[in-house]
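Predict fold of Restriction endonuclease; 161 aa.
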Amino acid sequence: MSFTQFELAVADLAERDGFTIEQACGGVNDRGADVIAVAPDGRTRVVIQCKHTRRGKSVGAPVLYALNGTARPVHGADVVVAITNGSFSEPAIDFADSQQIKLIGHYLLRQWATWGTPLAEVLCLENQPVPPVRPAREALNWSEIWSKLLSQQQQKAAAPV
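Predicted 3D structure, encoded as tokens:
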């Protein structure tokens, strides 16, 4: 899975959970925002930085420094989120806690994507209407993507160096 496919999958899942997507994919000049979504209440703006990592890698604090510097002042975020298929370093976790940045690592990502826990619940957003579960766009079957990603990571880990 490419980083672009990862960003699109995150946007697709947010849309599945009733969020309105304003930006589905970042790019070179995204200024720290890969996905921008508005919660089902129509008032809560969520800015998401997506980091697709290789097996065993973690997202470090510098990624969160950049996100924190732009999410609220540039993108008008009410909720700031960093999401990865991997994990976050201890300094990143400490910084996120101090700046009220929500982190979604591989476990919460699986809970959201595979088990269907709504994003509002994953982010602990209060007073958000939870829409009935709608299937994600067929073009992005997250379960298949997740299985393929895990398979690729296992193959890379087993490959001789």
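The domain at 3-158 is CATH 3.40.1350.10 (Trna Endonuclease; Chain: A, domain 1).
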